[in-house]
Amino acid sequence: MDSIQRLVRTWVASGRQEEIQETVGAISAGSASLLDVVKALGEYLTAEEDELRNKGVDFLSLVIAACPSDKINRQSVLVQFMCGKLEDTETVIPALKGLNSLVVQPALTSPDAVDVVKALFMHVKMRALVQSQRFIVYSIIDSLVAKHREALKTMGNEFITGYVSLAEGEKDPRNLLVAFAIARVLLIEFDVKHYIEQLFNITFCYFPITFRPPPDDPYGITTEDLKKALRECLDATPAFGPLAIPLFLEKLTAGSPVTKRDTLQTLDVCLPVYGSLVAKENARKLWNTLKLEIFQPTDPETESMALHTTQVLVQTIYGGPTGAAQDQEIEGLAKDACEDCLKILKEPEKSQAKPATKVLCAFVSTTPSVSKFTLNQAVPHLIKLFLNPDEIQNRAPTLRLLADLIHAARQSPLQDSATPPALLPYKDEVLGVLTVGLTNVSSSLNALDGLNGMVTTDNLLFDDELGFVVHNVNELFTKDVTEHSEDVSDAILSLLASVSAIAPRHVSETTLPLLFTSLPDIAPPRTAESERLKYWTTLSFLKRLCIQPDLFEMLVIRLSTKLDLICVPSGTTLQDVPDPEPVAAYAHSILRTLADAVAKKVELDHPDVPKYVDRLLPCLFNLHMYSALVSNGDYLVATDPRLVSVSAEIVTLVLQTAAAQKQEQFIKSLFAAYLDGLPQAVTEGHHKFPEDAVFSPLASDASTLQKNLILLFSAALVALHKEVALPVPEEGLFLDKLLQWSVNQADNKLQNEASEHAISSVLNKRVEEAFLTNKLESNWLARATDTGLALPIRRRVILAWAWMTKALQVRSHPSAQRFTDRLVELFNDSDIGWDAARAIGQVVSTDKVLTKRNHAVIKFLYAQKFSNVMLPRIIEGAKSAGEPRLQNAYLVALTSLIKSVPKSAYLHQMSSLMPLLLRGLDLPDSEIRANVIDTLLAVADPTAKSSSNIVSEHASSLVATMLKNCMVREMPSVRVRVIALRYLAVLPSLVKYDVLHPQKAMVLRELAKTLDDPKRSVRKEAVEARTNWYKYSG
Amino acid sequence: MEVFNPNPTVFAPTKSHRVAQFAKPHSLWLNDADSDQEGEYEDESNEVEAIDQDEIFELIRSISDPEHRSMSLEQLAVVSAPQITFDLKFPDRVTVEFTPTVPHCGMSTFIGLSIRVRLLRSLPERYKIDIKVKPGSHQSEHALNKQLNDKERVAAALENPALLEVLEQCLSTASLNA
């Protein structure tokens, strides 16, 4: 007891937390009780001095707050005591705190709860309290409403009126969140029928919420939180309806777009609660207001919300138990609105027809009866319109509207597999007008869209009707296919794709043969441009249609046969063909089609791709090898490297999907063909190789045509799983041989690159340590500095090294860094320094060889790791390397590296990078400049403050250098001019107006010159940039 | 604000003229799918591609109609490619004709002005542009044509900040296509 007294005295003097804790500790331990505390406080609680009384109550409240529940006895006494202290203005605040702790105690009795509330209503003057104190009052009431609801209900009117006057005028968002929660309970659970107006006043006065959270708001209350809490009050009782609707209407007519949207969303939740009677009474007024938002929309978002609210309104009116009856006569709003819209639809070509259709489409997703009524009105109307000879010029817009309705009916949530499709009664007529619409160029797009909607509606069309649709679409192919615009082609394809998903038979039996036969057997001559466009169009149809396994098989068979026929025509020799290039281009297009279709299937993980290792690849090898063997240097179509490249693509795509075992088998034959001179091993097909022909592409005396076939060899190697061993005695020796061949024997860039790809891929998957050590220790790269060698050979050495480094870097091999270091050592070479510098970027650039699909070993974030090591070194080098030549080489390395890594890898370094990048823009190399500008564009993010600051710092120099780079007089590269203009176009969004304001007039004047650029693509960007600078203002 | 034509006829826009989707111009060869990214820049020759009717149409087709902001001048058939003509003798002289949706359209001056401003900003200075309403399509055709081709009156109009603001809004959609 004494100790408590001592604690109290100390606390009154110090106000420290320790004394409170000690007191609570004593109570918890049972060595003192709350009663002791009250006794100890005695003199303070009754002191004359205001401050002492305040402190006395405060101490007690703090102790209660910290006390464990089971130690708080004599609740009622404490509650009565605290209530009493509410009367004293000096002790109100600590007493509220005390009550706040007491009301959550489980032992609080109902009479106590009522007493607390009464005391609050009687003594607490909300206007005299600050926000945090009012918050305590709301918290007390909230706790009581939660725990002693029944007791409070018995207070009846007293509680409601008391609370209303307490809560009136509250403005603080944190308090409002609690107040709204309390109001919702009152509205739902208490008998409030006589107080609706008062409660309406203390809730609806906050609508719409316009609160903007201050920056760094400690409570983190958002506008959305408040909106949500308020909405839960507004839709708490149907009794609000008659009062609320006029208010909502007013906000809808007069409000800002934000208010309108808030009101619409609130109506969406309120209308169903207010009920059909209120909705019906106000239907006209609501519809007239909503109509305005739909027919003269402020913005698309508000428009779609207004449509949704219209749906809610209709559902509220007709969705009740009485509206559920399907065949009930539709009266009132739905009928009137429908009629309104149909009146507008008498002129389908006019602008108002579109929103009218949107309304009808919205009705289709409301209630079954309204949906049925709407379709029953609208569909026959549109069909009649279509068939009316006076309206023939309006058929296209009519079908547009019809197609919209078809889609709406299909997507309607009322539609499920159990109910027959809503469109069923009109199926025949609709199908009829749509197929008529197909035949006309202007309406075919809409007709196709409508048909697609019908085809994709479940249970709507029978199989023979699908056949009928396909038949009618096929008719379009009999006309000139090149006449179709891109849109129509897309629509045809998407319709046929929808049909093939349900019934592929119709497409494979009728459409495909039609397309295949329209492909010519002989390539059209050079001048026959329209013929060429025709086969391109046909092929593009085929490649997009034939993805489904059965259809794809058909594609492979038909196209590979066609390919053989074109490349090796029977009866004629190529000498008879005066101009073989169109032939090669045709064959190339066919191969391209196959490659694109395979690529699509690989992307979709189709399981039927691997079987084409046996079915397609041997034919391709056969064709190319045969042509290379019989040519004797003459031009044969299939020896064209452009064709070989596409075939190589197909080889990689198909082989990468095969299992390791299958690959092993294939690769064995492949090596037999390429290394042992047994070309038959990997081929299959009807071209018989001449008896005496020798196939040895890797021999030093091989013809260029044979050497070109290394592309196919490499294409297979890069697709292998890492477990697949190469069928050679020693892989290291093989790699070495390939490397020598690549540097010294390859005749052209294609061969050179192909062999590098193979080396890199093998090295990545099957690291040959001995090979690596040998290359590092002998410093194989050093031959790049050998001035005795031809420059192209020296460059090849660097390229080969870069590919090897890449193979290692991608899998984070420990030797990778040493490989990179060797490249850096070459920076100072006067001939190949820049090549070595560019190679740094190549090491981590994305490529099509070392990919997951090709089973490469790729470590997570390897590019970031690389740039974390290299970027600081390169930045340092570019800043401080001794000679300008070396500095520039570092700059080149920087631009190439930055271009290759994701921007997150360097974004944090932007402030030190910017000056270097600006220097890079002065280097006399358009590719480097393009890299720099691409990088600047990549980091140009108007929303990121930090990067904008850096741009602002350098804004004037950026403007000056970009203007230089976009003038045709100074910059011959189209690409650089285009992206320099693009950068100028984004600058106004990155930099505050006051920074660049002095330059505006000059920039506009200079940009005027770029409007006269010889290239259209540059002019387009110039217009964009100049427009943005015109709009640029403070 | 008086509404001159509350429910105008809407026309389907034509596609932006079909870019060679298969091959580069005058090529026998189909484009490689993987060269798509660089394809844009492949033509590095600075061979002159003259500004033509389509290119000028491209500049004005997407300007918003002042009365129906959600629709473009093209959709309302106010402008069209054939209505842009080059003077045969002086290739830098261009006439742009437009068709108001109704003959009493009070917005016609504004539409003409927006076309004028867009072209002033986007065509090289050497061009001389005449803007006219289609003969017989407007009740005060003569006055309108005179007003639109009077430099000083155009300049004066552009000094009216309220007018300029609406103009910028109508022009803001002009470069959104492509």
From TrEMBL, chain A:
Chief localization: nucleus
Classification via InterPro entries: ARM-like, ARM-type_fold, MMS19, MMS19_C, MMS19_N
Domain MMS19 C-terminal intervals: 538-988
Protein name (database record): MMS19 nucleotide excision repair protein
Domain of life: Eukaryota
Gene3D superfamilies registered for this protein in UniProt: Leucine-rich Repeat Variant (1.25.10.10)
GO cellular component: cytosolic [4Fe-4S] assembly targeting complex; nucleus
Pfam families with a match to the protein in the record: MMS19_C (PF12460), MMS19_N (PF14500)
Organism for this UniProt entry: Phlebiopsis gigantea (strain 11061_1 CR5-6) (White-rot fungus)
Keyword set, alphabetical order: DNA damage, DNA repair, Nucleus, Repeat
The organism's taxonomic lineage, starting at the top: Eukaryota, Fungi, Dikarya, Basidiomycota, Agaricomycotina
Residue ranges of domain MMS19 N-terminal in the record: 38-296
Subcellular location: Nucleus
Protein family: Belongs to the MET18/MMS19 family.
Biological process, per Gene Ontology: DNA repair; iron-sulfur cluster assembly; protein maturation
Function: Key component of the cytosolic iron-sulfur protein assembly (CIA) complex, a multiprotein complex that mediates the incorporation of iron-sulfur cluster into apoproteins specifically involved in DNA metabolism and genomic integrity. In the CIA complex, MMS19 acts as an adapter between early-acting CIA components and a subset of cellular target iron-sulfur proteins.
UniProtKB/TrEMBL annotation, chain B:
Annotated TM spans: none
One GO term of the biological process aspect: protein maturation
Similarity field: Belongs to the MIP18 family.
Keyword Manganese: no
Keywords associated with the record: Chromosome partition
The protein's name in its UniProt record: MIP18 family-like domain-containing protein
Gene Ontology CC: intracellular protein-containing complex; iron-sulfur cluster assembly complex
Domain MIP18 family-like per the UniProt entry, residue ranges: 54-127
Top-level taxonomic group: Eukaryota
PANTHER family xrefs: CYTOSOLIC IRON-SULFUR ASSEMBLY COMPONENT 2B (PTHR12377:SF0), CYTOSOLIC IRON-SULFUR ASSEMBLY COMPONENT 2B-RELATED (PTHR12377)
UniProt-listed Pfam families: FeS_assembly_P
Keyword Nucleotidyltransferase: no
